[in-house]
Task: structure prediction
Amino acid sequence: MKNSQKDLLKSCATIGEDDGIDPRILQKRYKNSHNKCRKVHRKNQQLCSQVVQALNLAFADIDNDIIASLYAVRAVPMPNITRLLVTVTQRETTPVILIQKEIARYHNRFRYEIATTIHRKKVPHLAFVIE
Result:
């Protein structure tokens, strides 16, 4: 049953857009719209941490001084979980151009190491940022 304007005006001074709607429905709508922006999936976080661990092991396993000096700090979905943005720091000061060349050289090896660590049908693509 829809409330008429006269009934609504009896209970309040002005009519708002949420007047006449069940408060439980309003609360659900607010909760759903509020959480969509900040919703972080637990499985996505788990995959990102597994990728960071696998990359750190791969960096240590490769017999290259530049790659061995790298350390993966975090991985975040970019824009979704099929592509990850990996933030990498270096323990020694090496020019960024050399680091980028070495990362590009071993990129397929990194994906292979991730594929052996995680249990997914498809391995995410990697993009690297050097801090």
In short: The chain has a mean pLDDT of 83. The first strand starts at residue 70 and ends at 77. The helical segments are 5-11, 23-38, 42-61, 65-68, 96-105, 107-117.
